[in-house]
## 1
Amino acid sequence: MDRELLEKIKNGELHFHEIDEMLNTRDAIELRRAAVSETTGTEFRHIDNFSFDVDTVTKRNIENMIGAIQIPLGVAGPLRINGEYAKGDFYVPLATTEGALVASTHRGCSVITACGGANVRIFDDRMTRAPVFRAKDVTDAQKLVEWVRENLMRLKEQAEKTTRFGRLLAVEPFVAGRNVYLRFAYDTKDAMGMNMVTIATDAAVDLVLSENDVDLVALSGNMCTDKKPAAINSIMGKGKTVTADVILDREIILEKLKTTPLRMAEVNYRKNLVGSARAGSLGFNAHAANIAVAMFIACGQDAAHVVEASSAITTMETEEEGLYCSVTLPSLAAGTVGGGTHIGTQQECLAMLGVAGAGDPPGANSKKLAEIIAAAVLSGEISLIGALAGRHLAKAHAALGR
């Protein structure tokens, strides 16, 4: 190790990112780690243990790398899915540190599979970016809105020059005073697509500015909306809008969940629907975020998009034969190429689901992944509502989650 460089880092003469220009990737990581260790007095005995390719991740996924964090990976299933893209029995990878989560999801998978599997359908698929423009006044704001509607095909042509696979589907204008928000929506195929739509929208903005007397304030004006709770995503969708449902047999509920359809329906109504409404929640579910983020981490997704995934709606209705259960995720951001999907451990989890890399036709793999996530979320909802209905939750956490 270069002691002279190490001392320069510690005394502030050399910045972390500058080391990458002086050393190979592994030596740069080791030097940064040593500097942090000596400066903070921390002995690192674990974060230097990893197997992924550092040259790749430092170019695409991380800056100032010093090591890696390990998260336990569990598996639930088999989970039977009757989707348009996901068909068959799947083992669901869940990366989490929350005891009882995998066991609970596994129980939900068992219940769904015993009842013939979850039906899953995707109703919309669009990734969004919404720049905000400042017009001189409301008159010019209206002119911009009219121009956008008259020039959609030109905007589409301009945006699509930047991408091989992305397709501009729509541009929806929203006005507040002289602020004009243009919500661009794209089909991004197998990519989750945030980077793709940002670059494409930036190109389209050049056309807007060249022919309108307005100023661009920001390429993202929060009408997109990503990584923040927003009603617009629940109403208009962002990413995949996907629903999973199943009818649970009364006898299987009694056997596996130790409760009744009527009791589960009441818990869902008073907790997920009335309770969420009283709290002013944008999510009407038990814990959709739990399963979504565990799958996101395992499968190389951007974990911050769990915010949108958490705005899910769970319904349960008694039927003559048992209980109808569904979960709808209006805004599920998922992809099988780009981002963290290429990292070795995440690639293996995607491969386990049969969705690693690009699909044939393009977009098929990301849709398949979205269907699997939705079915897994439904498993988690059924299991937790069952536990609450049977008053088993505290016992399970006492046994598994302490």
## 2
Amino acid sequence: MKKVQVLGPGCPKCVELGKRTEQAAKALGGDYEVEKVSELNKIMAFGIFTTPALVVDGEVKMVGQVPSVDEIKKLIG
């Protein structure tokens, strides 16, 4: 199972990234666990200072933007 984390305090961009990430994971049909991380200390532990961010299996894949569902599929696939 791939662990996909959406990092962000809950701002509109963070919420949108969460929705798109869930859509991408569902469309891929794989075994994904999508987790939303909103606690600042946990976000900073990844070395992230700009949100939203997307992390796949502990590796930061994207910071500071909201890619399309198709782009997210490539990042998490």
